[in-house]
Amino acid sequence: MNATQETTHDVVFSTMRFGTLSIAEDKVIYFVQGIPGFKNLRRFILIDHDSEGLFKWLQSVEDPLVAFLLTNPNVYKPDYTVPLRKSDVEGLGVKDAGNLVTLAMVCFSNNNNQVSINLKGPVLFNSENMTAMQCIIDREDYPSHFIIKI
User: Which domains, and CATH codes, for the chain?
Assistant: First the structure.
């Protein structure tokens, strides 16, 4: 190996849902601010839930019990957009907005068997540098429990 070749190390960690995983370090997503309620967890990976890629698991590398189900909000609300603040763009190191991926957390209600997505708290990923953050949007037309049909 010459000096210009980079080596990537695998990160090996345990999960409750997926067992022990080994993933290249450059595939680990770093949350620049932590997720509200989980501020001490900063490192996650995305795992496809289904073959269509409609749902993804955001699995913590640091806590085997923490995983969130995510989906593309535009599938269920085509006009959904995230108003980007300058601080969000800077925090994620965005150079090209085309590298931003928006996903929404999926919520399940035990009371009425409804499935919803959180449009008030989208998760933004910068695929260029593998950083992410959960944004909080204060808009009346973006509820935290937007009912979807799956």
Answer: 10-148 (2.30.290.10)
